[in-house]
Amino acid sequence: MTGDLPVxxxxxxxxxxxxxxxxxxxxxxxxxxxPGWTILWVLLLMAGTWTAWRLFSRWRRNAYRRRALGLLxxxxxxxxxxxxxxxxxxxxxxxxxxxxxxxxxxxxSLSGEKWIAFLEDHCPDPGFRDxxxxxxxxxxxxxxxxxxxxxxxxxxxxxxxERWIRRHRREGxx
Length: 174
Prior knowledge:
Blueprint: H1 35-61, H2 63-78, H3 84-87, H4 89-101, H5 104-107, H6 112-121, H7 131-141, H8 151-167
Helix pairs in contact: 2-4, 2-8, 4-8, 7-8
């Protein structure tokens, strides 16, 4: 219907007649204009990549710890009061974790007091030299009928094994 009515240049608001359109500035570029900012961004990108790589490498290196802690958690969960079969998994779990963290030539042949001394020397404040170490040795080398352990001692042994797995110091990159 607007085609029927004649429209001239004076149609509309007389105050706006003759005003020019506003020209918007060009958008701000995402790239920095000064070379110093470019260098800073490149350095930040390199530092971020290096940090991510280091974190990923540490995460991969500690996969054996996560696996051992998961196994320990499952053993602890299925352990019933007086269940000696579940406790028998602790020495094997510790030995496997140590074999992943240290050279086989140093760890595989250790047993008895030498094994307890190794566990003590490679973890800050482990506590294996007292009664818990004797229990660990008995569990590893004696028949389950010959050794006895109370619930409190079993809980302490589980805590010591968990502490050792979490806090032992690895030897060099692997």
